Amino acid sequence: MNTAQTLLIPFEEYETNVLSQINLKFNALKSKVKNTSIWNILPDSNTTQWIEQNTMLKLQSNIGFNEECCTLIENSKRTYRIGLIDADLLDNGTRHPNLALLKMSAYCKGFNHDVRLLCSYDEIEIKGNGYTNYDLIVLSRVFKFTKIHPIVQKLIEKGKIVYGGTGFFEIDGPNLPHIVEHHMPDYHLYDEYIEIQTNGDEKLKKRKWGDYLSYSIGFTTRGCIRQCGFCVNRLLKKVVPCSPVSEFLDKSRSKIYLWDDNIMAAPYQVFHSVIEQLQATGKAFQFRQGMDIRLMTEEKAQILMNSKYCGDYIFAFDHYKLDDPEEKKQVEQTVKGLDVWRKYCNKSTKLYVLVAYDSQDERDIEGTFYRIKILMEYGCLPYIMRYESYKDSKYKTLYTQLARWCNQPGFFKKMSFRQYCVRNEEYHQGFNKETAGQNNAILRTDLYGLRKKKYCACYQAMLDFEREHPEIAAKYFDLRFEDLKNKN
Ligand code: SF4
User: Fold this and answer.
1) Lesser CB count within 10 Å: N end or C end of the chain?
2) Is the pLDDT reported for residue 468 higher than 60?
3) What is the pTM of this model?
């Protein structure tokens, strides 16, 4: 029997042809997913047994994994089949595992339920009335722009799938119940997905999936004093302790990363206690949110510098408008923080540079270069974070190229922005590596000295901007990290 066909009874409002268009490749996936307990316990779909068992949990509310879910999970008399969906992973992929899902998984497994992370939307089989082959499906989305399978979206609207995350509720989403929030994460939730993606290649796992496999992950504090308009951490206006490190520490994992919103704004004792706990583990750690360099002090710089820190130190540099007194103050505090930092630390330091949030015009582009120049002078690396409105800008391509140049230190450290764009066009025109960087003068003409009609997107974006705003280009396009890095 073809399982996929028999189980794909169309969901209420979906025509059969819509379903077939969506091309659920169930069998292909099933053959890839090995040792999956779910497949072993699925009853024959032709029997009444299947129909009787096919009752998803009925919930009053499907917003967030809530207390009601906990009550059902804890009081169940049978083993539930629970499917967890990391929507960001299934859309574009993500660099980090979804911590909320890791905690839900561990919590549910603690009551002996059969939990799996869906490796594809194709794993959901839809029966009549919108029932699926799971007793409970929970979908989490971190980013608003992440796309969700249209049928799954429909199931959410029909209350059949529990959903949550900042990708749905920017600042006012429900919190996880206390018992789930403070549960040790299930660090093996993604194992099967990673196994499929890497085909078991250990080197590839280490290279591409290290953030999933080598780290304990948690929040030692929550909250932030700032309430920036673009940020999801706006509810709690102060920094409070959240989890002791022991709550999420997996001793078998070599490193730790933290998602604290603003550890630098934590009260003195809290900051010290967190660092002491981290140091006591003997493991290298890293704060992944851009830390607030405006709150850098000599003492904090020394503590961070002398810690067992892994990877780049990451801070944020979000402001640039010198004609706005409040913004100007933020810029000055950032520069002061960099001064203090560089007094104690010469290690690799990166700052997130938010772009296209305040505006998406030449002013914002100039503000971006302004911050890049300051960072070059402090020997720091910018990491361009594009606010999603960059897509509406006439400089959309330029924003993209700025991100490509800055976010790849191999390019950023060696080339000015102009050199980077020229190199792209050289590659586009087939110049070899040996003459890289020497062809700028002839790039714009063909063999007969005539003006070329079409350039690569990168070079064209640079030319267009330079034509419109030659003064900004003259000021910034030729700056090189190498030349400026020891200026401060
Ligand atoms: S300082 Fe950082 S964490 Fe705090 S509100 Fe601003 S962006 Fe969010």
Assistant:
1) N
2) yes
3) 0.83
Residue 358 in any domain: the answer is yes
Instruction: Return d(Cα 337, Cα 110) in angstroms, integer.
Output: 45
Are 124 and 233 in the same domain?
no
Record the tokens describing residue 81, joined without a space.
Answer: 């089949």
Tokens of 437: 């960087």
Q: Which of 224, 225, 292 to mutate to test the pocket of ligand 1 (most atoms within 8 A of CB)?
A: 224
Same domain, 160 and 299: no
- Lookup: tokens for 226: 């700032």
Q: Is residue 198 part of a domain?
A: no
Number of domains in the chain: 2
Read off the DSSP letter of residue 391. G
- Please report, for the domain that includes residue 357, its CATH number: 3.80.30.20
**C-alpha of residue 221 to centroid of ligand 1, in Å:** 13
Same domain, 117 and 236: no
User: What pLDDT shows up at residue 429?
Assistant: 83
- Whether residue 346 lies inside any domain: the answer is yes
Q: Render pLDDT for 180-220 as a digit per residue (tens, 0 to 9).
A: 999 999 999 999 999 999 999 999 999 999 999 999 999 99
Q: Ligand 1 pocket check: which of 170, 227, 228 to mutate, most ligand atoms within 8 Å of Cβ?
A: 228
Q: Which of 222, 225, 233 to mutate to test the pocket of ligand 1 (most atoms within 8 A of CB)?
A: 233
When pLDDT is averaged across residues 422-427 and rounded to a whole number, the result is: 90
Query: Residue 488: which residues within 8 A CB-CB, separation 6 or more?
Result: 338, 339, 342, 377, 378, 379
| Same-domain status, 119 and 216 | no
- Considering the domain architecture, whether residues 173 and 212 belong to the same structural domain is answered as no
How many angstroms separate the alpha carbon of residue 352 from the centre of ligand 1? 12
pLDDT tens for residues 32-41?
433 333 333 3
Q: Are residues 242 and 105 in the same domain?
A: no
Q: Are residues 145 and 241 in the same domain?
A: no
Backbone phi, psi, residue 418, to 5°: -65, -45
Contacts 24+ apart (CB under 8 A), 163-166: 163/62, 163/63, 163/64, 163/138, 163/139, 164/63, 164/64, 164/65, 164/100, 164/138, 164/139, 164/140, 165/87, 165/98, 165/100, 165/140, 165/141, 166/141, 166/142, 166/232
| Residue with CA at minimum distance from ligand 1 atom 6 | 228
Closest CA to 210 of 178, 242, 254: 254
pLDDT digits (tens, 9 = 90+) for 117-165: 999 999 998 877 778 889 999 999 999 999 999 989 999 998 999 999 9
DSSP 134: S
Give pLDDT tens digits for 73-91. 999 999 999 999 999 999 9
Q: Is the pLDDT of residue 20 over 70?
A: no
Ligand 1 atom, smallest distance to 227 CA: 5
In a domain? residue 142: yes
Are both 344 and 460 inside the same structural domain?
A: yes
Domain containing residue 163: 3-181
* Tokens describing residue 173: 């989403």
